[in-house]
Amino acid sequence: METAFYFEQAGIGLSMDENYHIFLALKQLIITHPIQTCRFWGKILGLEMNYIVAEVEFQEGEEEEEAEEEEVVEEAGKEGSEARDEDEEEEKVEDEPPKSTYKPPPVIPKEENRTGANKFTYFVCNEPGKPWVRLTQVTPAQIVAARKIKKFFTGRLDAPIVSYPPFPGNEGNYLRAQIARISAGTQISPLGFFQFGEEEGDEEEEGGAGRDTYEENPDFEPISVIELLDSLSNWVHHVQNILMQGRCVWVNPSQKSEVEEEEGEEEEKPDEPDEPEEEVGPPLLTPLSEDSDILNIPPWTAESSTNLVPQYSIAVLHSNLWPGAYSFAIGKRFDNIYLGWGHKYSPENYTPTMPPPVQTEYISGPETTEMSDPTVEEELALKVAQEEALAAAEEEDEMEEEEDEDEDD
Amino acid sequence: MDAESLPYALDLVAGSGVSLSPEKRAALRASLLLVLRDYRFEKVRLWGRIQCIRGAYYIAEGLGSDRFGPRSRLYSLNCVEWSLLPPPTEEMIILTAGLKGRFQGDPSYEYEPYEKKIDEDRPYDEESPLVKEEIRLVAAVDQIDKAVGIVPRGAYVKTPLGPVHENRNFEGLSLTEAKKLSSYFHFTEPVKLKNKSLLEKADLDPATDFLDSLEHDIPKGSWSIQLERGGSLVVLRSLLWLGLTFYHVPLTKQHGYIYYGTGEKNIDLPFML
């Protein structure tokens, strides 16, 4: 509730009674589920209904029920991505004869609970008071696909996503993928509020990308509002960046599919890159000042809530990359909220990706290319030549037979 | 939305993330009254806010006795000092049509005019003037108003002499009517009405149905209509100009709209539905 007050001061957010309704709804959620932390993440507008999103973290040891669901989800996820491949394959299989050379790319494994893009669990409801629905964990394939499409949410979680390229899953999965993307892009905190855990210290030397946990810094010294406004380097991301692969931590997709690899080794595959290069994103707690611009537009706009009484003002940041994402900070308090349609800002128009080029039916060679018919003379000449060759061959055969006979003797 | 009922109205549209800080609200309530007095308007409305990279433009409009007539628009960067915007012209709209990207938040910022296609038979115009952001603002506000400024059916009446007045007998739409797009009208010169057949026109009341309804907007589904607060509030959101929110409380006179966005048209709409 307190954060709601600050957001109101900043001129962001919902009306007071709606906030209160949401607060009550969150309370209900906490009572019914073993939840450790719970936060109002934001609201996503839809065509028919809106989504209210809560970000929760389950208590340790309460994952059993989750784990069960997990497997189902995993399968569903796999089915989804396989289905997608099948779609592509089907067309080719219809014409049986030429064997399809298409090999589905190895499925990139999903991230474990509590890590990377699945660090938190999200619950959504359409209106405060309606039952909360748990969103399934996101798979990398979904994030990758979500990057390529731009669709309005309808407000029904089971609505199909009709798009090109096809999205693996329904609207619930799309919503979860977008939440993951928005979180990764816009969850920020003042510099120094979080620090890396002690045990992670050793890993730092190894590479830094492995650090994925952080804890609250007990000795955090509040940064003054003016400093927060002046320089974006006083703000840091506290959610891991999602790589192009759709995961926060890079995995090598070809390691997983060793069996396939062996099969594939028989035929040479020159077009396939032998080893995909490892992607490394910016490490956790990277300052905002290192965010890239969107075509000359700065990614963040900092504002003070008031110019008239600066001693009571709070620092407010608007994201220009994800319009609708806001953050505020004052003293030790800060929060992020998202209110919008759930789309990334793009200065250029959205263009759906082009369909892949049509597969060639056969290799064009002498058997399939059309030739001019031979004239009578050519035919006769060929006949003569063939007869001669035949005669020569027969003679040879006879010779050989004779030889054979000699040998037999 | 009307200046008098501003706090109440802002509360109603807050569901789509439209809200102003208490400071801005207080400033608006005082300054809009002054605008009303100084410019001798009959009515002043808060039109909306265009979010810029630095700060935001707050737009108000003042109306004369003919509600349908030309409107004066004012803008302000701090909700206190208002300056008049020049009336929009065709030329401005053409000039600004190619500008892309966010508003800068500085009225005197000059945009590079976009590259015109060079016609072969006509030599390339020498220096085309730089476009000021103020001009772009005028054009954007005008376009938004023309495309998605809407009123409920029956809220305004056309008198036989021509001027359009508020309908004093308007008691709000019933709940069933309020759920239909056909009971909302574009508050601009009708375009499609003239093309309607006599049969379709037969049911229309010339006093109230003198505007285009939203029903046949292109593309289909460019409005999101929702009931909030247990059906006591209808909220329409335009998907073509993301950020425009219209509210109407059924069975009351309360209605209005506010634009609260970046001032950019959603040209990706056909792909997103």
TrEMBL record, chain A:
The alphabetized UniProt keywords are: Cell projection, Cilium, Cytoplasm, Cytoskeleton
Which terms does the UniProt entry file under GO BP? Answer: axoneme assembly; cilium movement involved in cell motility
Ranges of biased composition (kind: Acidic residues): 59-74, 84-94, 259-280, 393-409
Q: Where is this region: Disordered?
A: 59-113, 254-295, 387-409
**Cellular-component GO terms for this entry:** radial spoke
Q: Predominant location of this chain?
A: cytoplasm
Q: What is this protein called?
A: Radial spoke head component 4A
Native species of this protein?
Sphenodon punctatus
Recall the taxonomic lineage recorded for the source organism: Eukaryota, Metazoa, Chordata, Craniata, Vertebrata
TrEMBL record, chain B:
Q: Which InterPro entries match?
A: RSP9 (IPR055316)
- Main location, first listed in the record: other
Q: Where, if anywhere, are coiled coils annotated?
A: none
> What is the annotated localization of this protein?
Cell projection, Kinocilium; Cytoplasm, Cytoskeleton, Flagellum axoneme
Look up keyword Manganese and say if it applies.
Answer: no
- Which controlled-vocabulary keywords does the entry list? Cell projection, Cilium, Cilium biogenesis/degradation, Cytoplasm, Cytoskeleton, Flagellum
Give the CC-aspect GO terms. Answer: kinocilium; radial spoke head 1; radial spoke head 3; sperm flagellum
PANTHER family cross-referenced by the UniProt entry: MITOCHONDRIAL RIBOSOMAL PROTEIN S18, RADIAL SPOKE HEAD PROTEIN 9 HOMOLOG
Tell me which family the UniProt entry assigns to this protein: Belongs to the flagellar radial spoke RSP9 family.
Q: What is this protein called?
A: Radial spoke head protein 9 homolog
User: What organism is recorded for this protein?
Assistant: Sphenodon punctatus (Tuatara)
The UniProt gene name for this protein comes to: RSPH9
